[in-house]
Amino acid sequence: MEQWPILVLSGFGAGFLAGAIGLGAIVLVPLLVFVAGLPIHAAAGASIANTFAAAVSALVAHRRRRRVHVRIGLIAAAGALVGGGTGGLASALVSGQMLTAFYLTVVLVALALVAPVEQAAEPTEPPRGGIVALSIGLTVGLIGGMIGVGGGFIQVPLLVRAARMRMHEAVGTSLFIALFGTAAGFSGKLVTGQVPFPEALIVLAGGMTGGQLGARLSGRFNARVLRGAFALVLLLIAARVAADLFGWPPKAS
To answer: Which residues contact 114 (CB under 8 A, 6 or more apart)?
Structure first.
């Protein structure tokens, strides 16, 4: 398999970003499609397997540093289990182009969510649980199951804005919720034949290492830096996916 170094590096980079700023699979899917040459459905299948492994790896470090709100995480995880399984099954019913368009839409929504948060002060009130957390888990689980991600790129802004969490705590809690959503999403993709196991295992090897390193370095950045990095990565991804979706640059005839 000639592309194995690309797969390992892609997994490592995605795992590092997941551990450091709460998003990794959103970067991994474009890498697997545009660099490794996998079809979008296969890339999403390999990505969700890696996201689960990276979340496990990074969560250990975040939990040790008390950056996980377990009560809210468990409530959201209940919704993520339902949403993730539904999204994983439903993704087999849509075309590659439609899945790419959905992916782009979600990235743009995440950008709209994270931009105002960058200007906001750190919350002073206790985080919200209950129906807010359950709704976040259900929504993000459905999205993640569809496009093969843990959903941190949209879940972290929602936890900060809607659940009133601090940025570092939102990153750690998002990884906790992702364990449940990605497990359900992976199951849905597995039973519908969307997981390329050789590629997924290679990507996973890099992802677990990167997740640990990213989580260890996360605490060295302040909340403003984390949010800025978050927004910049999303903007670059949106531009690249949009260019591919709309056929730019045009191919020479």
So the answer is: 156, 157, 227, 230, 231, 234
49 within 8 A of 186, measured Cβ to Cβ: yes
Tokens, residue 166: 């601090």
Confidence of residue 137 (pLDDT cuts 50, 70, 90): very high
Which domain does 77 fall in, by range? Answer: 4-245
Task: Give the Å distances, CA to CA, from 59 to 16, 68, 139.
Answer: 12, 8, 21
What's the pLDDT band for 135 if we cut at 50, 70, 90? very high
| Helices 167-191, 223-245: inter-axial angle, 10-degree rounding | 30
Length of the chain, in residues:
253
- Number of domains into which the chain is organized: 1
The verdict on residue 210 lying in a domain is yes
> Alpha carbon of 118 to those of 115, 175, 228: distances in Å?
5, 20, 7
Residue 115: inside a domain: yes
C-alpha distances (whole Å) from 189 to each of 126, 194, 216 are: 37, 5, 31
Confidence label for 118 from pLDDT (cuts 50, 70 and 90)? very low
In this prediction the pTM is 0.74
Q: What distance in Å separates the CA atoms of residue 74 and residue 66, rounded to the nearest whole number?
A: 16
